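Quick one, probably user error.
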């Protein structure tokens, strides 16, 4: 098989000549003799049967074919640099990819702020973030679809080999739209409890597909409206379609401007966790989970 004339070294020579504007300055940067660069370019032109540079005064300028070679070549240089860095990280125990499921009630702003800080120090790490609801997070972890779950509700499944760190999330608030017909009794707990069985509940689907689905929040009511995401649930309740619990951090502005009204109902606060499998020894997982444990949610 004929050897490919387009080598990493040849691409780096083209890149340096283009950036520095001359063979001499490029040779100085690459710590090579000018004649070595000239020979490298000449050999590339002969093997590809193209002209890469032409002279404009004292400056070497890329031809259209040379420009294409350089632009695509820079992508290859970047990819090989990343590949080398990833290989080094994997060799030292740093996994190349981290799959994370985030519970729908988590403060995404805080989560992504933490992720930004982490990736600034680990730029080659590939991260895949998905949303989970209730038992869906535990199921995704059990099936190895994710490496880390954030904000998943307790209790922690027993004898599954999980490491779980408690986290304190913002309050879940039972609310109703201000234009809903029963908004007028929002502060009357006795009237509310009597009316609840007839009120439509807005419920976010549990993302579990195999294990038993569960629900949280208001458990009384004949009418149900199921939605897929917390964003949909917020919009459904703003539209007056029903009642339900929403994370305070997501709806504070609507409480402040009066579009949503907090219901005077007794609520219980459950536990939430950051969790992963003990058997997963990845350094990226360990480092990021420790960072998340320090976040004030």
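Nope, works fine. Designed sequence:
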């Amino acid at each position: 098989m004929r050897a490919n004339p387009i080598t990493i070294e040849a691409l780096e020579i083209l890149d340096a000549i283009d950036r520095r504007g001359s063979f001499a300055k490029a040779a100085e940067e690459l710590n090579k003799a000018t004649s070595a660069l000239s020979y490298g370019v000449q050999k590339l032109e002969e093997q590809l049967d193209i002209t890469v540079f032409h002279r404009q005064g004292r400056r070497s300028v890329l031809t259209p074919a040379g420009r294409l070679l350089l632009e695509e070549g820079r992508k290859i240089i970047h990819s090989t640099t990343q590949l080398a860095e990833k290989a080094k990280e994997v060799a030292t125990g740093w996994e190349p990819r981290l799959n994370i499921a985030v519970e729908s009630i988590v403060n995404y702003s805080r989560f992504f702020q933490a992720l930004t800080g982490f990736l600034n120090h680990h730029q080659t790490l590939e991260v895949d973030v998905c949303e989970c609801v209730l038992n869906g997070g535990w199921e995704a972890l059990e099936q190895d679809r994710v490496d880390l779950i954030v904000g998943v509700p307790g209790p922690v499944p027993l004898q599954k080999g999980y490491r779980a760190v408690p986290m304190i999330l913002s309050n879940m608030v039972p609310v109703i739209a201000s234009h809903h017909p029963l908004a007028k009794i929002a502060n009357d707990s006795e009237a509310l409890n009597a009316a609840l069985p007839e009120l439509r509940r807005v419920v976010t689907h549990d993302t579990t597909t195999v294990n038993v689905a569960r629900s949280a929040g208001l458990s009384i009511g004949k009418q149900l409206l199921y939605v897929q995401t917390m964003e949909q649930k917020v919009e459904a309740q703003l539209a007056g379609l029903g009642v339900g619990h929403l994370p305070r951090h997501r709806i504070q502005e609507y409480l402040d401007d009066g579009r949503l009204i907090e219901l005077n109902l007794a609520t219980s606060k459950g536990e939430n966790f950051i969790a992963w499998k003990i058997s997963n020894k990845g350094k990226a997982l360990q480092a990021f989970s420790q960072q998340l444990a320090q976040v004030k949610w």
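The longest strand covers residues 97-103.
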